[in-house]
Design goal:
Length: 594
């Protein structure tokens, strides 16, 4: 879940973005004529309309036979086309600037980033200044977790005072909301909820193992991600499951073992799904509706878990936009077949029950948000949202309701219906032009003829060119493989020289992402080639001087080499760049105590 380091890639990408923006149509006014407007608020479909876009907003909508286009405007004949608002993916983890292009090319003009850091805030600043081509961004705080956080880089809290402090800091840093996670103790979670209310900032995320879904909703949780805690709360065994969750949390805190479903809850797994009580479920949905607690089911994620060994995943056309290394890590062939079979067997009935829950919550009036958890295997940025819409319809939502989960509902959720969520005069011109009616079949959202982002029109050839650039970058040869082969044959110094030559002369031919250096460095550490690993991590620092993660990795290598002072120096640098780096804090304290 580590993001890209901005200084190198953002500079490269801004140049590409500027070129792409220059290719977009830039007349003072844009007019779409003879277009059919889909009213996602539930009103009648408007046929043969003209839409005037002036600057970055929709200026006028009128029947084409009554409309006169301004003489300086660029007129686009949209006969036979269908216009919808720009889509939102409400649960994403962008890993690279290329992900931003994939969102736009798929008609996604807004994203909710579920683990925010300073890279994201820098990107939003660049975007808002017109220097970065990207969707609108609604950004979380870093993940707030318990004393032993699941993810490195999360903010760890162990007291109520710490919990309140992180809320204050998140708001001061510009976060739109606070992201809470699974292993928060009860008192710390409730302190976050109370402080968030005082600071007038919302909080969302996983229902922690220490509280029930109803308690989380009653505490003010604005959205629950992945349906965490929902099935458990609907079961007639909910009291036993709550105790099992507490036992799992205690085990995690004592052993540090990482799991999302611990052994105590796992023992109830099949019974939990077989004992879902309709009356308890209805009562819970009433609580969600009363409290305004939204659900982001991320059905794409649950489908993946239930079908990860399906060969169809490995031939997805969109895989060509995923970097080779990431693609390889997803491939079931590189995983334990036994564990895959066990997990799939458990997840298949769970996924079917999740579909039923989503349909029931929609019927009960609970707000549903379309989100995908991009960054997970086969949840590919941009493309996954269209999969999510299809799964929402498969669950039982109508095509209109699925569209609302990605348009009007996000606008309402972020409290900005003035700018987003519908095709109306006065709203920001974030629109998607389709070749077919999405109300006839939700799959028609993929038939994109053009995207309008803040008044800039990107036609199909321009979108295809954006995709081609991403594919070219994704299919570069991983530099880690190249350097490893050279290390094995000629030694580390030859590999360092090779890197400098390739980055200077063939930059576009290789994947020089930070993950390549970090993965290679740890591969060498595991082979006990510590001095070689140090040199590789030094290259990572050279390429990504603003990444806390690369300094943290170099510090670890120095520790393994016995260089205490250099380890301390690099952990301090890592914490300077990211004070929330829990691992850096822990290791630095350990070193200073020696």
């Amino acid at each position: 879940m580590k993001k890209w380091a901005p200084l190198l890639f953002l500079a490269i990408f801004c140049v590409a973005a500027a070129q792409t923006i220059a290719q977009a149509k830039k007349s003072a006014d844009i007019v779409l004529t003879h277009v059919t407007i889909i009213d996602v608020t539930g009103g009648p479909t408007l046929r043969d309309m003209s839409v005037l876009i002036a600057g970055n907003r929709i200026s006028k909508i009128e029947s084409t036979n009554k409309f006169s286009a301004p003489p300086t405007s660029e007129v686009i004949d949209a006969t036979g086309k269908f216009l919808i608002p720009g889509l939102w993916d409400m649960h994403v983890h962008p890993h690279s600037p290329q992900d931003l292009s994939l969102f736009i090319a798929n008609g996604i003009t807004g994203i909710r980033i579920m683990w925010g850091d300073r890279d994201d805030f820098a990107s939003r600043k660049e975007r808002d200044a017109g220097r970065l081509l990207a969707p609108h961004m609604y950004i979380a705080s870093p993940i707030i977790d318990g004393p032993k956080p699941f993810w490195p880089g999360s903010i760890s809290v162990s007291t109520e005072a710490e919990a309140r402090t992180v809320v204050d800091r998140a708001k001061a840093a510009g976060a739109d909301f606070v992201k809470v996670y699974s292993f928060l103790p009860r008192e710390e979670f409730l302190a976050i909820a109370d402080e968030a209310k005082k600071q007038n900032i919302s909080f969302a995320g996983h229902v922690p193992m220490s509280v029930s879904a109803q308690e989380a909703s009653d505490a003010g949780m604005k959205s629950i991600e992945h349906l965490t805690g929902v099935m458990q709360a609907c079961s007639t065994l909910s009291a036993d499951l709550d105790k099992a969750s507490e036992a799992d949390l205690d085990e995690h805190n004592s052993t540090g073992e990482r799991f999302f479903e611990g052994p105590h809850v796992h023992a109830f797994h099949e019974q939990m799904f077989a004992t879902c009580d309709p009356e308890k479920a209805t009562a819970l949905y009433d609580v969600f509706k009363r409290n305004g607690t939204w659900q982001t089911p991320t059905l794409t994620l649950w489908r993946m878990f239930s079908s990860i060994n399906d060969p169809a995943f490995t031939v997805m056309p969109a895989l060509k936009f995923v970097p080779i290394r990431e693609r390889q890590s997803w491939d079931p062939a590189n995983r334990s077949n036994q564990s895959l079979a066990e997990n799939t067997a458990l997840s298949k009935p769970e996924f079917q029950k999740d579909l039923q829950l989503v349909a029931a919550m929609q019927k009960a009036g609970v707000g549903i948000l379309a989100g995908t958890d991009t960054g997970n295997p086969y949840c590919i940025p941009g493309f996954a949202l269209h999969d999510e819409l299809k799964l929402l319809v498969q669950a039982g939502l109508t095509p209109l309701q699925a569209l609302q989960a990605a348009t009007t509902n996000p606008a309402q959720f972020i409290a900005n219906e003035n700018d987003f969520g519908a095709v109306r005069p006065g709203k920001l011109a974030n629109l998607v032009l389709l070749d077919a009616n999405p109300l006839d079949a939700i799959a028609n959202t993929t038939k994109i003829r053009g995207v309008i982002l803040d008044g800039q029109f990107f036609d199909r050839p321009t979108l295809d060119a954006m995709l081609a650039k991403v594919a070219a970058l994704a299919n570069r040869k991983p530099i880690g493989d190249v350097l490893f082969a050279t290390i094995q044959k000629d030694g580390i110094h030859a590999a360092v020289d090779q890197y400098h030559l390739l980055v200077a002369t063939q930059h576009d031919g290789y994947d020089f992402s930070e993950n390549e250096f970090v993965s290679l460095g740890y591969r060498l550490l595991h082979m006990q080639k510590v001095t070689d690993a140090i040199e590789v991590f030094k290259l990572s620092v050279e390429a990504y001087p603003q990444s806390y993660n690369t300094y943290d990795s170099l510090a670890e290598a120095y520790m393994d080499h016995g260089d205490r002072d250099l380890a301390i120096q690099n952990y301090r640098k890592s914490l300077e760049l990211n004070p929330a780096n829990a691992n850096g804090t822990k290791m630095l304290q350990k070193l200073l105590a020696q």
